Amino acid sequence: MSEKICKGGGPIFSLLAKLASTPADCAAHMDRRGFLKLGAMAALLGVVPTSAYSAVLRKDKKAKINPSKSLHFYNPHTGEKLDVSYFSKGRYSPAALKDVNRFFRDYRTGAVKSIDPQLLDYLYGISLKLETHSSPFHIISGYRSPETNAMLSRESGNVAKNSLHIQGKAVDIRLPDRKISVVRRVAVSLKQGGVGYYPSENFVHVDVGDIRCW
After folding, report:
1. C-beta of residue 48 within 8 angstroms of C-beta of residue 42
2. What is the CATH number of the domain that holds 76?
3. pTM for this prediction
4. Distance in angstroms (rounded) separating the CA atoms of residues 204 and 214
5. Structural domain range at position 18
6. Which of 6, 76, 138, 139 has fewest C-beta within 10 Å?
7. Positions of the chain with pLDDT lower than 50, given as ranges
8. Co-location of 79 and 108 in the same domain
9. DSSP code of residue 135
10. How far is it, in rounded angstroms, from Cα 64 to Cα 86?
11. Do 43 and 113 share a domain, yes or no?
């Protein structure tokens, strides 16, 4: 049957013949969408080896289970930017998390603390929902040292004395190309932690503490 197809007319048959002679390890690196479409047809015709088609299916399934996760940040206080791929191949990147820790530092004192990776996943979920994959989150407030938090708490009734900002589990954000009311609604819908709405100051607070909103 393979010989007949190779000699047949039409571009699809030529492609199927090419797929039939493609080793499994090479097939796994072909254009996934094209291979899956042609591979499905070829598998029905018995042209492509099962191992080649299965290799791509396994790779595709693994990619969906352990996707790479990237985020884009901008700090309006310092003018710094950070584009970071913090999760890849089923694990968090220590080097990327170190960059995030520094970026989220208390800009008033320079103090750095480890940021909870779940907080990054929360932001990643928000970016997916809003389809703002390449738009940077403006970080209004990330980590706060106890001294900074105490000072802010004295100046404003909106700052909790035991804020999760002190633990690296909270961040105040805005997305310039999205209304903060929309950002708030999406954050609440994900049910991954606390959400605070501050329209007068133009930011939304999100944290990975108990699920609540205000």
Report:
1. yes
2. 3.30.1380.10
3. 0.71
4. 10
5. 2-65
6. 76
7. 1-8, 12-13, 15-20, 22-30, 35-36, 48, 53, 56, 60, 62-63
8. yes
9. S
10. 16
11. no
Closest CA to 142 of 95, 74, 201: 74
Asked which of 46, 65, 84 is the last residue of a domain, the reply is 65
Vertex 163, ends 98 and 127: CA angle to 5°?
55
3-state secondary structure of 8: coil
Kindly state whether residues 156 and 125 are assigned to the same domain. yes
Token output for 142: 């990330």
Give the chain's length: 214
State residue 191 phi and psi, 5-degree precision: 50, 50
Q: Dump pLDDT digits (tens) for 176-191.
A: 999 999 999 999 999 9
Here the tokens at position 99 are 């960059």
Block residue for tokens 């000699």? 7
Distance from C-alpha of 4 to C-alpha of 27, rounded to nearest angstrom: 22
> pLDDT of 11-45, one tens digit each?
544 544 444 454 444 444 445 555 445 555 555 55
Cβ-count burial 116-133 (b if 16+ within 10 Å, e if not): bbebbbbbbbbbeebebe
Q: Are residues 116 and 203 in the same domain?
A: yes
- Name the pairing type of β-strands 137-141 and 69-74: parallel
